[in-house]
Amino acid sequence: MDTQVRTPQQIFMQPQRLLVPLFQRPYVWNQENQWMPLWQDLERVANRVLANPNQLQPHFLGAVVFQQVQNPTGNLQQRTVIDGQQRLTTLQILLDALHAEINLAGQVDASKRLELLIKNPKEYCEQSEDQFKVWPTNKDRQAFNEVMAMELPAAYQTLKNKDSKLALAHQFFSEQFRQWLNENGAEGIPTRVKAMERTTRELLQIVVIDLTASENAQEIFETLNARGSQLTAADLIKNFVFQRLLEQGADIESSYSNHWKQFETGFWEQEISVGRIKSPRSSVFLNHWLICQTTEEIVSREVFSRFKSYADYDAKPLTMPELLAKIHAACIRYKEFIDKGDVLEGAIDRIGLFLYRTKAMDIEVVKPVLMALMDRDANQDGLSDINSSLEIIESWLIRRMLIRATTKSYNKVMTDVIKVIQKSSKGQLSNALNTFFCSQTSDSSYWPDDNE
């Protein structure tokens, strides 16, 4: 068995056929549960590349298992896909959709580079289907062949298999790529092509487990897919933090009692919903705290990896004990937020009212913003400036809710709000936020006026 972390570039570059066995289930991924989250991950990573090409964070996509197939020397190399066929098939569909959109945009060199990841050179192809790097299970082959081989520009409605999940996936990713590539107009396309190409080829990571022909593939498949209790982001971060504390000779018992023990109480272990995902409140807090510290969009599955890079690079010169104390102080304030939002009668201050209303609207995305507000020097802003700032944010949220505006970019908007908060000078916070929201013009971020 050989196990390595590889990128799509490394997996798909060489001439090969990854064969999905007949007995495996057909393609079942869909837009809500897999395609959209995958697209959002791609978009996030590509936006990071645009913002800072020199500080890149790979995105982990999971694991796949291949088993070698004995084939004659000189023939196209083949492997059987034991696990991960949904992921691999989606990647091929996604890469082909991006290849098509880049081709239509006239970016020839990038298009040719991507083509190497989705088609085998004709010199290696004895049959038509040999051109494909991944060959799905029997039920999906006709649809896969049709959508991957169609002429440009794509005419999805003319396909015989237009209603298949594979055709719908290709159409979905094509539309997302087209919209993203054209977001800044024609002049911005070359830069955005470069960023998205780099993201899809080099910044996605997959654990590839390569078995020899003699190894027991079924046993390994069952072990990988056995049900177990999944570690949360808080569990992983705890392990990482205390391992570092141990290495640095810190007082482990004291650090645990003073700065971590509270995370293992009922309040912090309670599972809460953030969108469609349920997570312990401790993990949600750590996610929100990281967003506040980094001013980046960070989804739940990225919390641990981003925390590691933050602790190793961004938090310096803080030592691990100092960083842990900082997290502890933030979690005390965070609990105060939660408690204020739960007050249903009696006197309430402006922060409590804001939290009560956003809780009623089921909007968790504002918590990092509140943390950023509370991180400012107590003498930097007067109470009236803080209250005015909360009224502005609340107005933006409620007005958009009343007209049923999209919420899909709220994470990005709130990270921009945190940047405004952190850069605003003394006494100018509410003015800066008012200017920021008034300047928003896109459907996903504008501030509805009284007439609307």
How do the strands of the widest beta sheet line up side by side? Answer: 1-6-3-4-2-5
- Note the total helix count: 19
Structural class: alpha/beta
Beta-strand percentage range: 5-15%
Gross morphology: globular
What level of helicity do the residues show? Answer: 40-55%
In round numbers, the mean pLDDT is 89
Which regions contain 5 or more consecutive residues with pLDDT less than 50? none
* Number of beta-strand segments: 8
The gyration radius over C-alpha positions equals 25 Å
Summarize the structure in short:
The chain is an alpha/beta fold. Helix content is 54%, strand content 10%. It has 2 domains: 2-224, no CATH class; 233-438, no CATH class.
Written overview of the protein:
With 452 residues, the chain is α/β, with parallel strands linked by helices. It folds into 2 domains: 2-224, no CATH class; 233-438, no CATH class. It contains 19 helices and 8 strands.
